[in-house]
Structures are given as structure tokens and as C-alpha cells.
Write a structure and sequence with these properties.
Layout lengths: L4 H13 L1 H15 L10 H8 L4 H9 L4 E6 L14 H11 L3 E7 L5 H4 L8 H16 L6 E5 L5 H10 L6 E4 L10 H12 L5 H11 L11 H12 L14 H16 L9 H4 L2 H14 L5 H11 L6 H8 L16 H7 L1 H11 L21 E4 L5 E4 L23 E6 L2 E6 L9 E9 L2 H9 L2 H8 L4 E6 L4 H4 L8 H9 L3 E6 L12 E6 L16 E5 L4 E4 L3 H6 L7 H7 L9 H6 L12
Parallel strand pairs: 1-2, 1-3, 3-4, 9-10, 10-11, 11-12
Antiparallel strand pairs: 5-6, 7-8, 8-12, 9-13, 13-14
Organism: Melaminivora alkalimesophila
InterPro entries: 6-phosphgluc_deHydtase, Dihydro-acid_dehy_C, DiOHA_6PGluconate_deHydtase_CS, ILV_EDD_C, ILV_EDD_N, IlvD/EDD_N
EC number: 4.2.1.12
Length: 614
């Protein structure tokens, strides 16, 4: 299939833009790869320290017999349901490595925090920067430099991007990512959202809300909605960094352990004597574009417009929001998964899952097939679904037609001809909006602004009835809620999920409402139009700091416009507001936020990846 002209053009532009840094990256990679393998490049005392804790047979295998040594970087903790299954993975991986005549060691552990636990709390202000902390932890673990390959154990929001950034800074090391799978379906996401909206209106109390939440999040495994965690897994499949089809197999399924063992076999197959494809070679500009296309085709998390900029940068590749927007215009939406539909990821998997999506995109010329992956069969292997035979061996087969076209559709009849992501530009800066779940009659909102300095202020105004009164009292019959001081440098750019229920309640009443913020929403705005990641952020001198209560704001997702409707001279002359000093000080203290002051100070903009390590 001929590659789509727009996909080819965007890829070519990225390749040309990245020629200098990518060339330097590959030169460094080759220099590292051409050293002696594993433990053979270390002095005797170094080797002795590295193997001192190993059983005698393992020492013999990797020191005397010079067999491969695999480093494991794990994000295990049992606070995260998605990562709880990872606790037993090192034993499985070590056992399989021994069976294959190799060795595996836990090189290090990295932190893993749950945005679901910290949502709406001060702890959430560490969330985005936990990504770079994870990257640093990955680097520390791999810096022992005793490994011939690596396995990355992680699933959730910032964990996978952090592991990926860290691994790409060791681009000479063959690397396979190992997930744990989603929890089985509990209370439906639709019912959960309904109860949340009832709670926002005071129609149900804490006991009812807690019961609903615990029925939705109820066992080990990833949360079942299609947020950042599950988008991570889709993108890793599209990049060819998993064992094919591993993403959405539940933790308790018989195939899960065998797929985990297959990760060891896959890593060991990537050797100098056979098919040496280290991660820095796998992740090139075509691989990055494939990930972007898969994100758009499935209506995935907007967080990846930040994370994948940083991931690409780690491999010497420069992408921006214009690239995402141009691809979105030609990539059809093939999946409807909550919050962009009713089904959860288990329904998505049952309908055909990542294999179906990748096959459709490849066959339509919307993804690069001529890429390296961790498997010898290339990306076409990722169009198949794994199953465990009665003999205990894995087999992969074509997913066939969609088993539920309310969840997955072919390219020939998509849910939408575009990916549902729009870049917004105007005198308020650059922003993105996810419109895949927003009704067409809400793509354009023009209404007076109500400016908030925090999400807490907006919630207080909602509960006091102020937002209803404002909507009712102006001729526009609506309101644009501007929440500023939420960018990387102001407070670490927390997600603002707590705002979704009240805004949805207002919209359900018939008011035309929208959110404009320099914070994150992860696509969880659902059917409420939300211009997010506004850059530059208000604290860094961005134009959101100029908005005043009552200013008419126009959010036009069709035309790609985000602007204040003021005379240009008047707008330019208006001085920006300053972040309240008390709020700035509060952001700097408590729950460890003092330790992240340097990251806040040094962070790049959201469009530049919100990187604290540059």
C-alpha cells in the first residue's frame, strides 16, 4: 500500500528538521554499541560487585560462559492497581532467562504515582515531573552498564513515557516493554460518570459516590477507561516495542504469564550475531509518526502531545503540535472507547484491539510498515492477536472483522474522517482541543470569560451557584471558564479532572460552556469543549494572564481559533496579571513540592514537552 501523501510529508518534514540532532544521537549510539559486550567491558572489581548477590550458577553463566545479562527496570508498587501484578514479574523473567541460557537482574526500581489517587490534591503537582524523575531513575539503574538488553516494566500515565525517555538515553541497548494488562470490567464508565455528576450536584452523598468508584476500580490491573495509561499501551504496540498483542490481556488470563516470558525470548533474539535492533534504532521518525497516527485513530490521551514530544526529543527527533494537527486532518477515528464512547478497553480488546487498528491503518497507507521493531517480522506482526494453545504455546492470528462496530470500525467507514484533535491558535496562544466526543453544535463557543486562579476556585463558584447565574445572566447563554497558573513552571501542570463533572452538569442544563487552561485534562473533558495546554503558560508571561472577567472569548474548534475578542491595540496595551504570591508559595511547599523547585524553574513549555532535563 502506498503511504498516504500527508503522512509521508509530515514524516519528511520531521526527518529534515531533525537531521542534525538525530545524526549526532545515532553517532553516539554506534559508539556505545561497538564496545565489548556486557560484563566484558568492566574491570574485575566492577564485575565482582555486579554479581556478588547472584547464585553461583548465575555468576558462572554470565562471567565465565559470557551469556547475555538482561537488566530489568521495574515500576512495581502495590498502591497502583496497574502495577501490583509486576511484583512477581522479576521471578518469572529470571526463570525464563535461565531457561534460555541467560541471566536477568533487577537493575533498579522507579517511582510510580497514581493520578487517580492524587487527582485534585497537592500531590498531583508532582505528577508531570514524576515522568522525568522516572527517566532519571531508569538512567541510574542502567548506568551500571552491565547489561546486554533491558526489560521495562510499567504501564501508567507518566511511567511509560519516563521509562521510554530513560531507555532512549541508552539507545544502544535492545529494549522490550512489558505491561501487566487492564483489570476486568467493573461498574461501567457511563454509570460512574453519572454518579459523579449526581455527586457534583449534591444529589448523592459520599457513601454512594465511594461505592460507585470502588465498583469501577476494583482489582489489580490498569483502569479500564482509555486514558493516558491505556493510550501508552496502544502507542507501544504501534511502535513495535511490545511482544505483539500484549497490551490488553488481563492480569489473570493464562496467556499473560507466557507473554511475559516471551518478552525475555524477544529481548534475547536481538543480538549482535542475529538482528541487532537497539531501541535507539527502532525509535526513528517513522516509528514516532506511527505512534502519533495510532493515538489519533483511537482518540487517545492528549497528554501524549506533551509526552511524545519529550520522547521524540530523547531520540534526537523534533516534533510539534503542527505535526499532530496535520496528521489529525487525514487520520480517521476508528475507535470509540470511554471517554469518547461507551465501551472500556476490555470491550476494545474484544472487538479486535490494537491488532485490528494497526492492520487497518497499515492497509490504508496511514502507517509506515518499513520500520524496525523488537520482532523479526516487523510491524505486520502487531496486526495479530495472541492466544495460548492447549500445548501452552503462544499463537497469533488475524483479528478478522470488527466484532463490534459500535467500538471499532474499518477505515472505509470510520466514526469520523479525522482524528478529532485540533490545534487552536490566536491571541491567547497555542492550545489543543480533543473534539472526538464533543457534539458538533459545541465546536464553537463564544461567551464571556470568568477567570479563576485555581481549580478550587472554580469548584467553589460552581457549588455556590455562581456559574449558573453567570450563564443565565449574559446574552450568550454560556460561559468560558479560564483557569490559569496551571502550567509546568507555575505548579507542575496538574490534570484538572475534578472540573469535568461540574462543567458537564452545566452543559447538560443547556448552557454553552467551555474550559480554557494552561493545565492538563488528558482528554477527560469528554463532551465539554476544553482548550488545554495553552502555551506559553500564564506564569511564563503567556496571554492567559491578560484575560479579565467579562472578556468575550471565542473557541472555534472548526476553524482552529482561540482568541479574546478585543481591539488589538487595547489587548496589547493591557498589562498581565501576576500570580498571587500566596498561591505561588503554597505551590512550593508541602508533600515534597520543595524538592521539585528546580524542575518547575527549568521546565520547557507544554509544546516543547515540559522537559525539566534539558
Amino acid at each position: 500500500m502506498t503511504l498516504h501523501s500527508t503522512v509521508a510529508a509530515v514524516t519528511g518534514r520531521i526527518r529534515e528538521r531533525s537531521a542534525g540532532p538525530r545524526g549526532a544521537y545515532l553517532e553516539r549510539l554506534d559508539r556505545m554499541a561497538n564496545r565489548p559486550p556486557g560484563l566484558q567491558r568492566l574491570g574485575c572489581a566492577n564485575v565482582a560487585h555486579a554479581v556478588a548477590g547472584l547464585p553461583t550458577n548465575d555468576k558462572l553463566r554470565i562471567v565465565e560462559e559470557k551469556k547475555p545479562n538482561i537488566g530489568i527496570v521495574t515500576s512495581y508498587n502495590d498502591v497502583l492497581s496497574a502495577h501490583a501484578p509486576l511484583g512477581r514479574y522479576p521471578d518469572i523473567l529470571r526463570d525464563e532467562a535461565r531457561r534460555q541460557g541467560a541471566n536477568a537482574q533487577v537493575a533498579g526500581g522507579v517511582p510510580a504515582m497514581c493520578d487517580g489517587v492524587t487527582q485534585g490534591t497537592a500531590g498531583m503537582e508532582l505528577s508531570l515531573f514524576s515522568r522525568d524523575t522516572i527517566a532519571l531513575g531508569t538512567a541510574v539503574g542502567l548506568s551500571h552498564d552491565t547489561f546486554d538488553a533491558a526489560l521495562m516494566l510499567g504501564v501508567c500515565d507518566k511511567i511509560v513515557p519516563g521509562l521510554l525517555i530513560g531507555a532512549l538515553h541508552f539507545g544502544h541497548v535492545p529494549t522490550v516493554f512489558v505491561p501487566a494488562g487492564p483489570m476486568p470490567s467493573g461498574l461501567s464508565n457511563t454509570e460512574k460518570a453519572r454518579v459523579r455528576e449526581q455527586a457534583a450536584q449534591g444529589l448523592v452523598g459520599r457513601p454512594e459516590l465511594l461505592a460507585a468508584e470502588m465498583a469501577a476500580y476494583h482489582s489489580p490491573g490498569t483502569c479500564t477507561f482509555y486514558g493516558t495509561a491505556n493510550s501508552n499501551q496502544m502507542l507501544l504496540e504501534a511502535m513495535g516495542l511490545h511482544v505483539p498483542g500484549t497490551a490488553f490481556v488481563n492480569p489473570g488470563e493464562p496467556a499473560r504469564e507466557e507473554l511475559t516470558r516471551e518478552a525475555v525470548r524477544t529481548a534475547l533474539a536481538i543480538t549482535r550475531g542475529q538482528r541487532f535492533t537497539p531501541i535507539g534504532r527502532v525509535v526513528d521518525e517513522r516509528c514516532i509518526v506511527n505512534a502519533m497516527v495510532a493515538l489519533l485513530a483511537t482518540g487517545g490521551s492528549t497528554n501524549h502531545l506533551i509526552h511524545w514530544v519529550a520522547v521524540a526529543r530523547s531520540a534526537g527527533i523534533a516534533i510539534d503540535w503542527d505535526d499532530f494537527s496535520e496528521l489529525s486532518a487525514v487520520v480517521p477515528l476508528l475507535a470509540r472507547v470511554y471517554p469518547n464512547g461507551v465501551a472500556d478497553v476490555n470491550g476494545f480488546q474484544g472487538a479486535g484491539g490494537p491488532g485490528y487498528v494497526i492492520r487497518e491503518l497499515l492497509d490504508a497507507g496511514l502507517m509506515h510498515e518499513d520500520v524496525l521493531t523488537v520482532r523479526a517480522g516487523g510491524l505486520r506482526e502487531y496486526t495479530r492477536v495472541p492466544e495460548l494453545g492447549q500445548d501452552g504455546k503462544l499463537r497469533w492470528s488475524d483479528p478478522g472483522a470488527s466484532r463490534d462496530e459500535s467500538i471499532l470500525r474499518p477505515v472505509a467507514s470510520p466514526f469520523s474522517p479525522t482524528g478529532g484533535l485540533k490545534l487552536l491558535r490566536g491571541n491567547l496562544g497555542r492550545s489543543v482541543i480533543k473534539i472526538s466526543a464533543v457534539p458538533a453544535d459545541r465546536h464553537v463557543i463564544e461567551a464571556p470569560a470568568r477567570v479563576f486562579d485555581s481549580q478550587g476556585e472554580l469548584l467553589e463558584a460552581f457549588h455556590a451557584g455562581e456559574l449558573d447565574r453567570l450563564c443565565e445572566g449574559n446574552g450568550a447563554g454560556g460561559l468560558v471558564c479560564v483557569v490559569r497558573w496551571q502550567g509546568p513552571r507555575a505548579n507542575g501542570m496538574p490534570e484538572l479532572h475534578k472540573l469535568t463533572p461540574p462543567l458537564a452538569v452545566l452543559q447538560r442544563k443547556g448552557w454553552r460552556v467551555a474550559l480554557v487552561t494552561d493545565g492538563r485534562m488528558s482528554g477527560a473533558s469528554g463532551n465539554v469543549p476544553a482548550a488545554i495546554h495553552v502555551s506559553p503558560e500564564a506564569y511564563a508571561g503567556g496571554p492567559l494572564a491578560k484575560v479579565r472577567d467579562g472578556d468575550m472569548v471565542r473557541l472555534d474548534a472548526d476553524a482552529g481559533v482561540l482568541e479574546v475578542l478585543l481591539d488589538e491595540h487595547q489587548w496589547q496595551a493591557r498589562p498581565p496579571a501576576q500570580m498571587p504570591e500566596a498561591q505561588l508559595q503554597d505551590n512550593a511547599h508541602g508533600l515534597g513540592r520543595e524538592l521539585f523547585a528546580g524542575m518547575r524553574r527549568n521546565a520547557t513549555s507544554a509544546e516543547e514537552g515540559a522537559c525539566a532535563w534539558l
